[in-house]
Design goal:
Elements (H helix, E strand, L loop, with lengths): L1 H25 L1 H8 L2 E6 L1 E2 L13 E4 L8 E7 L5 E7 L1 E5 L3 E5 L8 E6 L10 E5 L1
Parallel strand pairs: 1-9
Antiparallel strand pairs: 1-8, 2-3, 3-7, 4-5, 6-7
């Protein structure tokens, strides 16, 4: 009698265990993305705020919130396996207005995307989830 009851409990536990494992396996990527810092990105634009820009360097326009106080920005990198990471790039600020900084950098290109808002603190090399892009 006790052995039959124990056997039924073990079978029920095994079934519940496998159902939970299937659920977690199926939603593992979604769960992983929920735990990553969510970022909003903007494209790097080529341009100048001044009427007579310095033509020795390419000037880029970045949103004010994308430039960190240490004159760095985080750019988006997509790895071969599909993971999205950020890396910091140093910039030289040439000017600003109410919306944009005009910057120069040897490491920025016009097809890059920069982070202008994040849900958590991020650092160089962190994996992130792109919540919204412009």
């Amino acid at each position: 009698m006790k052995q039959d009851k124990f056997k039924r409990i073990v079978i029920k536990f095994g079934i519940v265990f496998f159902i939970v494992m299937l659920f977690l396996t199926y939603f593992s990527k979604t769960i992983d993305n929920l735990l990553l810092p969510k970022v909003k990105i903007s494209d790097v634009m080529t341009g100048s705020l001044s009427e007579y820009p310095d033509t020795m360097h390419t000037h880029y326009l970045l949103p004010l919130s994308s430039v960190i106080s240490s004159e760095e920005v985080y750019v988006i990198n997509t790895l071969e396996n599909g993971d999205i990471t950020v890396s910091s790039v140093s910039v030289n600020i040439c000017g600003s207005d109410d919306l944009y900084y005009e910057v120069t950098s040897d490491f920025l290109f016009s097809d890059m995307q920069v982070v202008y808002m994040t849900s958590k603190e991020i650092s160089d090399g962190d994996r992130v989830y792109i919540e919204e892009g412009e």
